[in-house]
Amino acid sequence: MKFSVDKHDKYVTLKLEEHKFTNDNAPGLKSEFYLLNAEGFKNIIVDLSHVTECNDAQDLSCLLVGDRLCKSAGGLFIVTGINDELASIIELSNIFQSVTFVNTIEEATDFIFMDELEKEFRGAK
Prior knowledge:
The protein is of the alpha/beta class. It has four helices and five strands.
């Protein structure tokens, strides 16, 4: 499985660099979510802009693991870079009811920084 990880102070961006999202690379992605969470990253952005094919909505269920890990750590899990084909599979799978989807990485980082500011104003970290 090919992916890149870009770590920042408040978040990490994981970019899947495969054209197919399959049951072959979903477990590796899930493992990476656990590793990043164990390293203390509570805000994860997943960029799927390279992905052009996904044949089974079950493969996308690994995103729910990342979402659960981030939420339990008090952070955000955001997916970006969804094309039309992935959007239809996501809609069928109802994953969009749990996972936050935005159009660009910039929107995702803005979302995270706004959430962090809101937590600071409330006195919670």
